[in-house]
Amino acid sequence: LIALFQEVKDSDRPVLLHIHTQKGHGVPFMEKNREAFHAGGPFNPETGQYLGGSNGPNYNSVTADFLLKKIKQDPRVIAVNAGTPMFLFSQGQRDEAGQQFVDVGIAEQEAATMSTGLAKNGAKPVWYVASTFMQRTYDQWWHDIALNNQPVTALIHMASVNAMNDESHLGFFDIPFLSHIPNVVYLAPTNKEEHLAMLDWAIEQKDHPVAIRIPVGPLKETGLPDKTDYSVLNKNQVTQKGSQVAIFGLGNFYGLAQEVAEVLEEQHGITPTLVNPKFITGLDKELLDSLPANHQLLITLEDGLLEGGYGQTIASYLGNSDIRVQNYGIDKHFHDRYDRQELMAKNGLSRDQLVKTIVASLQA
Fold it and tell me: How many CB atoms lie within 10 A of CB 62?
């Protein structure tokens, strides 16, 4: 390659240098299984086995199992992906899905528009896309999916500060991206049961485009079916009734909200109201209007960009009320190769920081 570059670098006319590459060239197990080594963590260079990780169920596996079951039950359910099928289905699962699985190649825009066309013609498309690659489809989301209000189901993968962490692969810009597009319903489950209930509803309903922010982190299970009627839009779940402070923990950060609530009660005698919003798009205005009567402070925690995010939407709505609103999320910056805990702490998102801030605010 160096010799070729040297040959053409002083050319006085445009030069097209076509380079054919082979993923994993020179490493037998990579050449044999290119899909497994599309992306991954540390591995044993002799055996090719990835180091660490869990072989148990996770959000990706339960999503794939549920969707494959849907595909087998209903020929109208079509799984759509753009060049990263291994994030959803294994090769064996893709074989089972047959023509009901479509990989359009590295072309997220085509996946979005194709999903719109499928929905328009009576199919039930489920488009599986990494949050960081969804940026390529803003025009398609706006003019194809949302403007035509087609019932496309989009599964947003790796949308978290705890997902990929280099500046060209950041997954936490999706909330301001999607939540301000008309007609779109964006959901944030906190556990397996909520996630699958939302997915089932999204596939079967015909009224809206629905996106689901697949949880990031260890699989959390309640063991109880989620019987929420998601056709009643923007209804938040109050999981603990309290006073003084209300904590809204969106999606991945609901667990952090629970931890903060426990410490406030155990160490400071404060029983906060705890809310699982479930809906990123739209506000539960009835709930928000009721809070100023016996709460002085409202805290929002979101695993995403702070500016233009979920919390600031709440702050805007409550701007003329007597309740103070504090929003916590990630600052607007292309963070590169960051340490996740350090970035969280920098943005005031550790349990102890939040407890200290809440107690000080209530005493002020």
Answer: 17
Phi, psi values for residue 178, rounded to 5°: -90, -35
**Integer Cα distance of 246 and 248 in angstroms:** 7
Query: How far is it, in rounded angstroms, from Cα 185 to Cα 281?
Result: 6
Cα separation, 24 vs 32, in Å, equals 9
- Non-local (6+) Cβ contacts of 33 within 8 A are 48
Report the length, in residues, of the chain.
Answer: 364
C-alpha separations of 228 from 48, 174, 182, 203, 325 in Å: 44, 24, 23, 15, 27
The CB-based long-range contact list for 46-49 (8 Å cut-off, 24+ gap) reads: none
- Supply the Cα-derived Rg of the chain in whole angstroms: 23
Q: Which residues of the chain form beta strands (DSSP E)?
A: 77-81, 101-103, 124-130, 153-157, 185-187, 210-213, 237-240, 244-249, 273-276, 295-305, 324-330
* C-alpha–C-alpha distance, residues 23 and 34, integer Å: 6
Contact 247, 272 (CB under 8 A): yes
For 267, the enclosing helix (H) or strand (E) is: helix 254-268
- pLDDT over 70 for what percent of the chain? 99
**How confident is the model over 237-268, as pLDDT tens digits?**
999 999 999 999 999 999 999 999 999 999 99
The tens digit of pLDDT for each residue in 116-159 reads: 999 999 999 999 999 999 999 999 999 999 999 999 999 999 99
Q: For the chain, how many helices (H) and strands (E)? A: 13, 11
CB atoms within 10 A of CB 57: 13
pTM, to two decimals? 0.91
Residues 50 and 33 sit within 8 Å (Cβ to Cβ): no
Can you spell out the DSSP letters for 114-175?
A: HHHHHHHTT-EEEEEEEGGGGGGGHHIIIIIIITTT---EEEEES-STTS--STTS----HH
